[in-house]
Design brief:
By secondary structure, the protein is α+β, with helices and mostly antiparallel strands. The protein has a domain of 56 residues. Helix content is 33%, strand content 17%. It has a 3-stranded antiparallel beta sheet with strand order 1-3-2. β2 and β3 form a beta hairpin. The radius of gyration is 18 Å and the shape is globular.
């Protein structure tokens, strides 16, 4: 039997999106960001969204695909010249 701690906090959580293409896709799907700004630590532009299951159903697959592309071995293959 496992012990689980349930938190009944109603504190809102947010997603910070830094990929402009993802922000545009979210905009096309009807998601509206709450604010935009520049992260002072990284100088990257971000868009702040309220975290919801619907938002996660778009963001998680997008980020997974980007990660797969980044670490794909296909990009390291030698081509015949």
């Amino acid at each position: 039997m496992s012990n689980r701690i349930f938190q009944n906090s109603r504190e809102e959580k947010y997603n910070y999106i830094t990929d402009e293409a993802l922000m545009q896709k979210l905009d096309e799907l009807g998601f509206k960001y709450l604010e935009t700004g520049i992260n002072p630590s990284t100088n990257e532009r971000y868009w702040k969204y309220l975290q919801t299951n619907e938002l996660s159903s778009v963001v998680v697959p997008w980020e997974t695909e980007k990660r797969k592309q980044k670490y794909s071995l296909d990009r390291w293959q030698m081509t015949k010249g």
